[in-house]
Amino acid sequence: MPKMKTHSGAKKRFKVTGTGKLRGRHAFTSHILEKKPPKRKRALNGPAEISANDGARVRRLLGEGSVR
Fold first, then answer.
1. What pTM, to 2 d.p., does this model score?
2. 51: containing domain
3. Which end of the chain has fewer CB atoms < 10 Å from its terminal CB, N or C?
């Protein structure tokens, strides 16, 4: 059986932390920033934790065979 390949797009966008959580970028941070208040933009500028609902899909793309 051939090895499963990691999804190239996913490996550039998501990271698994040491404790097994998934981190990625916040939504709403790439364009139309002029109308968003600075407070909101600052709140969105750190990494976001990926929700459990999306986590299984992201883990499969990253090549983690067994979904936790």
1. 0.79
2. 7-11+22-28+35-63
3. N
